[in-house]
Design goal:
Elements (H helix, E strand, L loop, with lengths): L1 E5 L3 H13 L3 E5 L2 H9 L5 E5 L7 H10 L6 E5 L4 H9 L4 E4 L4 H15 L6 E4 L2 E4 L5 E3 L2 E3 L3 H12 L5 E2 H8 L10 H13 L8 E4 L3 E4 L3
Parallel strand pairs: 1-2, 1-3, 3-4, 4-5
Antiparallel strand pairs: 6-7, 7-8, 8-9, 10-12, 11-12
Helix pairs in contact: 2-3, 6-8
Bound molecules: calcium ion.
The site of calcium ion (CA) has 5 residues, from loops.
């Protein structure tokens, strides 16, 4: 699951990003409203966490603009203001939920999970391939009914490969999704991560699910 945090207070943005990444979400941050709207408008996010008071364009205007464009992405609004009028305005603009600063991270996380579950009624929360299952809300992976313990990056990599099963993914595509866009694909970091993942997913099983496509990249499929 990929989350965009639009928040101009760097400390708060970093706190949210770090906490969500520890929970295996992939997180991008925008530090002003215009940048946030442009990133959200690309449609690559499963959830937006949007501060209301932002430089260049506020969270309420961003929400209105996204809803006018019929973008269904769930939006959790953050604000220091806590009056009823502000909450009503936020929800009326098209936000799905509202959290007043300061907040406990556990509460933010609970709301994130709840919104992702709600949004997931259309998409499925379970990604399946053969006897491998990945729950994209709880982030639990199992193969043959046996739980698999994954690190943050391994989870992100597995989710991306599974969402694109039967499609060959180049190292560049994988690195753009999992790491930053300026990642140097000349290194073998992707191969290292894929091999870690393989040792957890495929080791000990006759039927392999992660396949190398020589000179191109990787694909997850049943043979
Ligand atoms: Ca702010």
């Amino acid at each position: 699951m990929r989350i965009l945090v639009v928040e101009d207070e760097k400390k708060v943005a970093h706190f949210i990003q770090q906490g969500l990444e520890e929970e295996h979400y992939t997180v991008d941050v925008a530090l002003n409203g215009e940048e946030g709207e442009a990133m959200a408008g690309m449609g690559n996010y499963d959830l937006l966490i949007l501060d209301v008071m932002l430089p260049k364009k506020n969270g309420i205007d961003i929400t209105r603009a996204l809803r006018q464009r019929k973008m269904p992405v769930p939006i959790l609004m953050l604000t220091a203001k806590a009056t009823t009028d502000d909450k009503v305005e936020g929800l009326d603009s098209g936000a799905d939920d509202y959290l007043t600063k300061p907040f406990a991270f556990a509460e933010l996380l609970a709301r994130v999970r709840s919104l992702l579950r709600r949004g997931a009624t259309e998409k499925t929360t379970m990604l399946l391939l053969g006897d491998l299952e990945l729950d994209t809300v709880s982030h639990r992976a199992r193969r043959g009914g046996k739980p698999i313990d994954l690190t943050m990056k391994e989870y992100a990599l597995l989710e991306f490969l599974l969402r694109n099963k039967d499609r060959v993914l180049s190292r560049t595509i994988i690195s753009e999704h999992i790491w930053e866009y300026n990642f140097d694909t000349g290194t073998n970091l992707i191969d290292v991560y894929v091999n870690h993942l393989r040792s957890k997913i495929d080791a000990g099983f006759d039927r392999k699910l992660i396949h190398t496509v020589r000179g191109v990249g990787y694909v997850m499929k049943e043979e």
